[in-house]
């Protein structure tokens, strides 16, 4: 019994920074519902305190040993802690910078904080996700909030155009990514955990098959959209031009950090036998993105 409690505490502590943000998000929602006068200063303070506590917990856990928790769905190590910390810092800087802009444009502050915190939670979970389903859910949590943020100024025609383009392109890229995951799921014998997927591909001797290559291409296309890599960057100028300035500051950093963490982990774990192929493809995309 004591061992079970110790394991539960250990597993829970791995996602404690995200849990703090979830609690803050719930508190903000409740206060916004029950309070007659919209006191945005208290909501602003709660969000900043939650982010500061989350960052402090990540720094406190810095030297802890790597652990895979929640039945293999979440992995914690020094690598993903760096990216989780960067996403939390991005939100911590974005919210204070947006206060004056939101006051001048008379937009609701509460919804903005909720969307930013939810996107932050999705991005932080994405950095440590160790399961195909968990990866997709965390990625969509981040993406859906990004769509809502880009269309935050709903009375602005440019913002409406930006969110429509972003939503359509994002839906297509998510579908392609899910299609790539389905190939890996089938070829590995029905596995979803990243380590078990590659073990399944080895056992079925499908790691160098054409199906695995199709899955690789679909994953590159899906994640390439999130990272705005050439030629999947057509949505970027319109969305950045039509979105509010604080939203652009957030979208230009947080989703890119989460996407970079995902692409680094997923390719190193799932495609160790195709290093030459995906290294070459990513090199071409990176060089093209820097030039164009």
UniProtKB/TrEMBL annotation:
Residues 129-292 form the NADH:quinone oxidoreductase/Mrp antiporter transmembrane domain. Keywords: Chloroplast, Membrane, NAD, Plastid, Thylakoid, Translocase, Transmembrane, Transmembrane helix. It comes from the Eukaryota. Residues 1-100 form the NAD(P)H-quinone oxidoreductase subunit 2 N-terminal domain. The chain crosses the membrane at residues 12-31, 43-62, 82-102, 109-126, 164-186, 206-225. The keyword Translocase applies. Pfam families: Ndh2_N, Proton_antipo_M. This is NADH dehydrogenase subunit B. It comes from Sphagnum squarrosum. The lineage of its organism: Eukaryota, Viridiplantae, Streptophyta, Embryophyta, Bryophyta.
